[in-house]
Every structure is written in C-alpha cells, then in structure tokens.
Design brief:
Layout (H helix, E strand, L loop, with lengths): L1 E7 L3 H12 L4 E9 L2 E8 L2 H10 L4 E5 L1 E6 L4 H11 L4 E9 L3 E8 L4 H10 L3 E4 L1
Antiparallel strand pairs: 1-3, 1-4, 2-3, 5-7, 5-8, 6-7
Length: 135
Amino acid sequence: MKQFIIHLEKEETLTQIGKTLGKFNVQITSIAGTTAFGICTVILCTDNDKITQEQLRKLNIPFSIQTVMIASLPNEPGAFGHFTQLLFDQKIQILSFYALRFTTNRTDYAFSVNEVDFEKAQAFLDASAILTSAR
C-alpha cells in the first residue's frame, strides 16, 4: 500500500482532491491530517495508487509517496508500545504511523519506515508474525 503525503497550501485543496478522486471512483481508504508550525499535512491512502498519483499531478499538488506496512496488533493496553520497542531494538526508524481499523481483538496500524530500513523491517516483522501487509 502507498501513502501520499501532501502539504496543503490552500484550504480548498483537500476538497479539490476529494472531489477529483470521487470523479474517478477512487475510494479513500485512510486519511489523516494535522497542522503544525503553520503547515497542514495530510496522509492519504486510496484503493488506486496509480489514478491518485495521476490526478494529484494534474491538479499540480505537490506530494511524496511512501510504502506503508500494516501491522495487526492485539487490541490491548501496551501493545503499541511493545511493537514500537521491537522496531527500536532493531534500529528501525518509524517515519509515520496511524490506526487503520479497530476490531474487538485487533488493531491494524499502517506505518512507514526509512527506505533503507524497509526490507529489514519487513523481514523482522514477518518472522515475528506481526506484519499483515507490505507492498
């Protein structure tokens, strides 16, 4: 899965992105945003990376792309802390993270790591049976 990182320069840009993707039947599967230091940053995941990328370019919206891994963790106190400690112990730097879905027993987190750490993170988490997806 890919995530698109967009720094919004104008408030209407988010509306423009949503309407454009909708016209192309692209489903937004996850979206998060925050403003810090006067800059609004959005992380966007969709069900069609190719069309999303094409349309952002056509709209002249600058963005970057990162590959996202998905870890399925027990839905219990301390699980996320344990997970991040495992990565820290392996000297794997987390660049972004957010919850994708919650169930009674599990929480799926999307996260990205430094490009040089990607294969190491994937191998380690596969061996730990934590990783559910990495594309």
